[in-house]
Design brief:
Layout (H helix, E strand, L loop, with lengths): L30 H22 L4 H20 L1 H7 L6 H15 L3 H12 L13 H20 L1 H25 L12 E2 L3 H6 L6 H6 L19 E2 L8 H25 L2 H22 L5 E5 L6 H9 L4 E6 L2 H13 L7 E5 L4 H4 L4 E4 L7 H5 L5 E7 L18 E10 L4 E8 L9
Parallel strand pairs: 1-2, 3-4, 3-6, 4-5, 6-7
Antiparallel strand pairs: 7-9, 8-9
Helix pairs in contact: 1-2, 1-7, 2-3, 2-7, 3-5, 4-6, 6-7, 11-12
């Protein structure tokens, strides 16, 4: 991660904390951090007590999950805030508080601070060595003594609850650190913000992560006020711990695309399947265009090279349209050209472009056709298109599903027609129009 040129520890006026109450350094709101630490400490103690009183695998599993959750939460809330801006006005209290956090997270806070400030510096290689002062030595010694005492007195709890719980908690910390700075399909961002009120309530405004990276010295209570001062920030509607679902969607999308591409090759090997596929798609596409009263003069077909049945359909339902096929695989384009010639389809109004679909370059057509095997975010691809979009979709992705399923374009579009291709294929086609269009189904 590269630090932003604008990143600064100088806090603007909105970042000044208010209502100081001794011994708190900045704000009475920091009492909530102390209370949260008490809750976390009690939860860790309960987890260890549960592990000490059970000999069942389920008991150890529950204890380990409880320990992991609170090690993760404590490290990314109170410990994170304290390492940036110590919460007490007295140095001795800050050192004692760091020892307390060390005990109940299992991580020496000097090491945590060293690693995290390296992260804010842009993670230059190599990471500088940690200088062991008296505080760091005390924290490391506390971990060794505490872990040793637990292993000596409650060996089963240590092996089957604390060690797996601590390892899982650190893995969750690592995962959160990754999801707070990356999104699938995007380059590394300095910080991705999430403005959900519930998440920011329980995570002490950690969701304002882009703001935190821009003003790391700002008090946690002021980050929401800094939101309007930050330009070009990256936002995500999901909190960090839910964002791996986005990555899972990307993986699933690519897997489904590969499987459907293989099925297209099966169709190419069977003339009977080819005739069937062309027939059912012709019926469905003709019906959906007719119902919407749409007669496109220009059409862009995305990824239609391998089995160009859409071209065969369009020669029937829109014979006068100029058609452009955009396919990133030159081998697929060659297969398409051969298939068209073999089936006697006129190629004079068909052009091919070997490239990934780019809405700014390829989006001027009256109709853009998206395949079921589309790799990518259909909603992002179709945002801002001036024409209609014909989506090959799963059977259950009809009008009621628009806006909820990842393969459906949702940005500034609405369904104006839908038709089932074939029940046995579990497939339908949906016609979408930009919201500014006035064409309605049945017009």
């Amino acid at each position: 991660m590269q630090p932003s040129p604008a990143a600064s520890t100088t806090v603007p006026a909105a970042g000044a904390a208010r209502a100081r109450v001794w011994p708190l350094r900045d704000s009475a709101a920091d009492a909530w951090l102390v209370a949260a630490t008490v809750v976390q400490s009690a939860a860790v103690a309960c987890g260890l007590a549960l592990a000490a009183r059970t000999d069942a695998a389920s008991g150890y599993a529950v204890a380990a999950l409880l320990l992991a959750g609170f090690v993760w939460w404590g490290s990314n809330t109170v410990a994170h805030i304290h390492l940036h801006r110590p919460i007490f006005a007295v140095r001795a209290l800050n050192r004692a508080f760091s020892l307390w956090l060390t005990l109940f997270t299992g991580v020496p806070q000097s090491l945590w601070r060293h690693r995290h400030l390296w992260h804010h510096a842009g993670e230059p290689r190599p990471m500088p060595p940690l200088r062991l002062g008296r505080q760091a030595i005390a924290e490391f010694a506390l971990v060794v003594v505490a872990w040793g005492a637990l292993a000596a007195t409650e060996q089963s709890a240590f092996i089957f609850a604390w060690l797996p719980g601590f390892a899982l908690g650190m893995a969750l910390c690592q995962l959160q650190g990754w999801t707070e700075h990356t999104l699938p399909g995007q380059s590394v961002a300095e910080g991705i913000s999430h403005y959900g009120k519930l998440y920011n309530l329980f995570w002490f405004h950690d969701g304002h992560h882009a703001e935190h990276h821009r003003w790391p010295a700002a008090h946690w209570t002021t980050l929401s006020a800094l939101r309007s001062d930050l330009r070009g920030k990256v936002e995500c509607p999901l909190p960090p711990f839910a964002r791996p679902w986005l990555g899972a969607r990307v993986v699933a999308n690519r897997g489904i695309g590969a499987a459907l591409t293989w099925l297209e090759r099966v169709c190419l090997a069977s003339p009977g399947l080819q005739r069937y596929m062309v027939a059912v798609h012709t019926r469905a596409i003709r019906a959906v265009l007719r119902d919407a009263g749409l007669r496109p003069s220009t059409v862009t077909v995305v990824g239609g090279g391998l089995f160009p049945r859409t071209l065969a359909v369009l020669r029937d339902v829109a014979p006068d349209a100029e058609v452009t096929v955009v396919d990133a695989d030159d081998r697929h384009v060659e297969v398409a050209r051969t298939w068209l010639r073999t089936h006697g389809i006129d190629e004079r109004k068909v052009s091919f472009r070997i490239a990934w679909f780019d809405p700014t370059r390829d989006g001027d057509a009256d109709l853009v056709v998206l395949p079921l095997a589309l790799i990518g975010d259909a909603g992002a691809l179709t945002a801002g298109l001036r024409g209609h979009v014909l989506c090959h979709a799963w059977l259950w992705q009809g009008a009621a599903a628009a806006g909820r399923l990842p393969t459906m374009p949702t940005t500034a579009t609405r369904i104006v027609g839908t038709h089932i291709v074939a029940w046995r294929l579990l497939k339908r086609v949906n016609l979408l129009a930009p919201v500014r269009h006035t064409v309605a189904a049945g017009r």
